[in-house]
């Protein structure tokens, strides 16, 4: 079984090594492909830099990665890495994508913005089993705890049937193994571990501030359990159509028959943009077609 390991913290992050070691210990072939720089908050963005129509690679490896593991840094967002991997862009189509181990928790509805989760969701949308792993610290001290939880979560991910396009989201407290209370399934908290707010509005600028979020009394949620020493497992899926019981409006145009039916012309539909920024364009922007 071939495992692709990626992240949003960049190719030099030690979290990649921990995931690679877990996959190797489970008997799998491993390749690491991660962004050349940090892409935190990139969600499932499909941004990249190209040179003459090709993705740009850099020769870097995470510290401690076993020599037999191939590693590539790519000037691309993690969501794009998960996307193109599903089409064999790195010489194989992975059976599993492991994303992380992210520096900082990915809990609550704030996971919408996570590049770590975005890479896993992107792969899962193309039929690849995927897991995102995060440790609740910016400078982790207990990678052995994260490895212990990853081993359990990965074994479960590969055994379970019917996972479909869902992603397993794993959060681990940065505590010593003997202080880990266990691993629990969890729902999403109302928000996440960190919340952004507008601090100041000025002429031509907006200044943001980032503050920690207290573990509110939401028993059973990922943030609540994580703050109390539990590692958490949450199943995610996106996108999902959901009208929530709302009756949506319908307005008929001038044609009596729907376009696309026999005898009716199809309307051209354009994406409007290209994936790449181009080598000289600022990262994160896209060019119009």
Give the number of DSSP strands: 13
Strand content: 15-25%
* Helix share bin: 10-25%
Measure the end-to-end span. Answer: 39 Å
- Classified by CATH, the class is Alpha Beta
pLDDT below 50 for ≥5 consecutive residues: which ranges? Answer: 276-289
Helix/sheet category: alpha/beta
Output the number of helix runs. 5
What is the overall shape?
globular
* CATH homology-level superfamily: Survival protein SurE-like phosphatase/nucleotidase
CATH architecture: 3-Layer(aba) Sandwich
- Give the mean pLDDT: 85
The CATH topology is what? Stationary-phase Survival Protein Sure Homolog, Chain: A
Strands of the widest sheet, in order across it, are: 5-6-2-1-7-8-9-13-10
Question: What pattern of helices and strands is seen along the backbone?
Answer: EHEEEEEHEHEHEEEEHE
What multimeric state do the chains show? Answer: single chain
Largest sheet: 9 strands, mixed
Region (Disordered): 247-289
Protein name: 5'-nucleotidase
Keywords: Cytoplasm, Hydrolase, Metal-binding, Nucleotide-binding
EC number: 3.1.3.5
